[in-house]
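User: Quick sanity check before I run a bigger batch. Here is a single chain. Can you write out its predicted 3D structure?
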Amino acid sequence: MYDIIIIGAGTAGLSAAVYGVRAGKQVLLLEEKVYGGQIISAAEVENYPGIRRISGYEFAENLYQQAKDLGAELKYERAVEIQEEEGKKVVLTNRSRYEGRAVILATGARNRRLGLEREEELTGAGVSYCATCDGVFYRGKDTAVAGGGNTALEDALFLSGYCRNVYLIHRRNEFRGEEKLVRALREKENVSMVLESQVICLNGKEHLESVTVKNRRTEATEEIPVAGLFIAVGQEPDNQAFAEIVSLDAYGYVKAGEDCRTNRAGIFTAGDCRTKEVRQLATAAADGAVAALAACAYIG
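Assistant: Done. Predicted structure follows.
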C-alpha cells in the first residue's frame, strides 16, 4: 500500500514526488517510457526561475535524481485503469496492480499528428516530432517544419544552423508564436516561410523525399523536396484510460482548477494533462507541488 501513486514521471510528476516524499509519504511513480517528459528533448532551457541556462536532459536528470534520493520509487509500467475499493485507489498497469491512498495524474501531453497517410510509417525515416533530437541527422540537407507556434519557430531556428534550407509551413498568414522568434527567422537567409499552406502528402519510398503542400487560399499545390519534416502542431493529452473515473473536457484534458483537484476525492492532477491556460515548465513544477500537498492533506 503506497500513500501516493503518481502516474507520469515528467516535470509535474517528479515535482509531486519530491514534495510527497519530503512530507513523509511513500510515493510510487509509474511511467510508461522514460522519466523527464517532453523537456528532456529541449536543447536549452532558459525560462526556469533561478536557472540561467540548462539542457532539458540535465534538468530532467537532476529532478529525477532528487526524487530518487529522497526515496521515491519508479516503475516503468503503463497505467491502464484506476479503480476504487473500500477507501483505497487501485491502479492497474500493463504488468501489475498497485494500491494507494491517493493518486496524482501527471500524464502530460503527446505530440499531435497531422493525420496524413504514411505519417506513422515514415516516422524515424524523415518524419520527426523533435528537432533538437533529430535535427543533426539532416546536416546540410533540406528540411521543413509544420506549425506556427513557438515550438515550430524554435525548431526552424534550430534547424537553420544545420540544414541547407528550412521551409516553415503554416496554415495561416500570421504566426501564433512570439514576434521575437519571427523576426529572428526572417533574418535567416536559408529559411523560407510557406504561409496559408498545409502539408497534404508525404512522398518517398523507404525514406521521406518530399512533401506536397496545398495553399489554403488558392488551392494550388506544390511539391517541396525535403529529407526531413518536423511536425510541431501542438499537443494532445493521453487521459482516455481514466475517463470513467475523472471528468475530462472536450479535448481530453482532466478538469481541474489551480488546486489540482479532480471531481473524484483522492484523485488529483498536475501538469500539461489538466485544463489550464499556461503550460510551461515552471507551471508543471508548481502543479506537482500543489497536487502533492493536496494529496498529503487528503491522506491526513
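The helical segments are 11-22, 56-70, 119-122, 131-134, 150-160, 179-186, 281-299.

User: Great, the batch can go ahead then.
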